[in-house]
Amino acid sequence: MKNNKLVIFILTIGVFGILNTEMGFIGLIPQIAEHFNVSTSTAGWLVSIFAIGIAVSGPIMPLLLSKIERKKVMIAVLAIFIISNIVTVFTTHFSILLIARIIPAIFHPVYIALAFSVASDSVNYKEAPKAVAKVFIGVSAGMVVGVPIVNFLASQFNLYVALSFFAVVNLIVLILTIIFIPKMPAKATVTYVTQLRVLKRPLTWLSIIVSVLFNTAVFGVYSYLTDFLNMVTTAPGIAVSIILFLYGVSNILGNIIAGKLLTTMPQKAIFLLPFALIIVYVAMFEVGLYLIPMFIISILWGTFAGVSANITQYVITSVAPDAPDLSNGIFLSAVNSGTSIGTFFGGLFIASLGSKFVILIGVTACIINILFIFLRNRSLRHFETTS
């Protein structure tokens, strides 16, 4: 592919815009709850409903559209996101806001899976993880850097300016795609039936569960970080934005670290990560009342969360290389199922026990995941022996 670096760069910005639309609402939950006169847990459904849409469409949509010319698919998905972004800016009804979140969520997996596929195809097999890692920077940036940006815009200007940011980013990517991305014929893919056979493997299902639990542990807490900082830490608006930004930058650092870990000691990294997250959550529970410790915690937590982002993709795609479209779709479905589950139970803990106890969903998910990681590692050894 000519201009490979430019294509990867645009894809990285593209996934930033797509993920920013999904996760940026985390930084706006308090403002949206106040603006639409709903509870914090109800506003949290704007994150959950998007995740549910991705979870449902993830294994299906990338497969269904995999035989269509890639540039056309990218343009169509970006256009859908821009229209939905504009609706969120101008609607005055919470129900319409929910609908405007569901529609782009259905097409979200198409663009992300396509970005991973193009990045992987642009290099040889051994270098594929590094190419995918470059795109993952955009994914992580969209997940976490976009949050402090929109939170800052909402606190310094208003909610409308923050919501408009999503549309502007996606519009820029659409223009870059139309001008600079060459036509990309659909790749000759493995048949649907052949790819679906990977679902017969116990290892595949154990990997899916591990991926779900990692995202439950991270985003079950992170989805309500703004609320935690407001209600528990009582941090001023500018401090909230700084903490969210530190988390985001550290997340990208975690992506880089994960790339090295997954090429040298993948199974150890996967097993040790839940313990690292538990330590951070216990510290957050104990000293989350104080602002200075939260700055430090956000850096550590963000780094581990960045490692987690890469691991959640690795644990699934590494055990299903013979089903590239399906495995990327399943990965997106799994992590967003984790986000949905985590946000739901995190909201329950907040509603019943208070904002501080949202930490419990993170710790609980990590403890359960330790067991499933052990089972996955054992199944992986058996799979490698018999393959």
UniProtKB/TrEMBL annotation:
Keyword Ion transport in annotation: no
Topological type in the membrane: Multi-pass membrane protein
Domain Major facilitator superfamily (MFS) profile stretches: 6-381
UniProt keyword Cytoplasm, yes or no: no
Transmembrane region(s): 7-33, 45-66, 73-92, 98-119, 131-153, 159-182, 203-225, 237-258, 270-292, 298-317, 329-351, 357-375
Primary location group: membrane
InterPro entries attached to this UniProt entry: MFS, MFS_dom, MFS_Efflux_Transporters, MFS_trans_sf
Protein name from the UniProt record: MFS transporter
Organism: Staphylococcus edaphicus
Top-level taxon of the source organism: Bacteria
GO molecular function (one): transmembrane transporter activity
Keywords associated with the record: Cell membrane, Membrane, Transmembrane, Transmembrane helix, Transport
Subcellular compartments: Cell membrane
An example Gene Ontology CC term for this record: plasma membrane
